[in-house]
């Protein structure tokens, strides 16, 4: 720790404060430290700190379950649905196990593509925390297929919809990423649509994190209209384009959320997915409306 303090300013506080400071300063440590073993140690600490901070910001997570009626078979999990079973029994003579109806509660499967602006301000721990949010939710809640796309001058699919990845490796790779200065939102959205098409479930949603200030490509509002549903998390700042972000949300039949601190991302992301899932689970109409 003393060697790290000789490179960056790490406060003397609780262990949580110290490790989080290492995560936030990892880019500087990586560039300034001359000892590779010190960089590797800082990287391990940063990865764990980001996962722990994501879990802390998410808090308790739970999705509404869907009631599903299924025919009985030996070993099946669930409870007998009395009403449906009685309806099946036309006469005492025909009563057998094949007429038993079971009730089981399941999660509706959903597919989510997370599209992240990786230009300039969104680097290191910010990218890692955004990605950690969707990965941790998928692990906790089950039933979520997801893809992650970064974009600057072009889109880069870092986690494909149909592939599993190791969370710690994914976060570590993001921590080591160097951001570029150009912003091609259209490219990110097009890549997101392509990944959503690989999903096994028809319940699909896109979420983009950006300030809306595109410097390459066409107006992204056109590409946003191709999504079944697209929500926009707008990072506030002097360069933020609220008109573009609001327009993408409108064209994508979704909502825009303003975030002033990247530590807000896990909570906002969870609320978006939970609301989408709730509308599916309650049967209150098409969740893509």
Automatic annotation (TrEMBL):
Protein name: VWA domain-containing protein
PROSITE patterns found in the cross-reference section: VWFA
Organism: Candidatus Sysuiplasma superficiale
Domain of life: Archaea
InterPro entries hit by this protein: VWF_A (IPR002035), vWFA_dom_sf (IPR036465)
The organism's taxonomic lineage, starting at the top: Archaea, Methanobacteriati, Thermoplasmatota, Thermoplasmata, Candidatus Sysuiplasmatales
Signal sequence bounds: none
Domain VWFA residue range list: 111-273
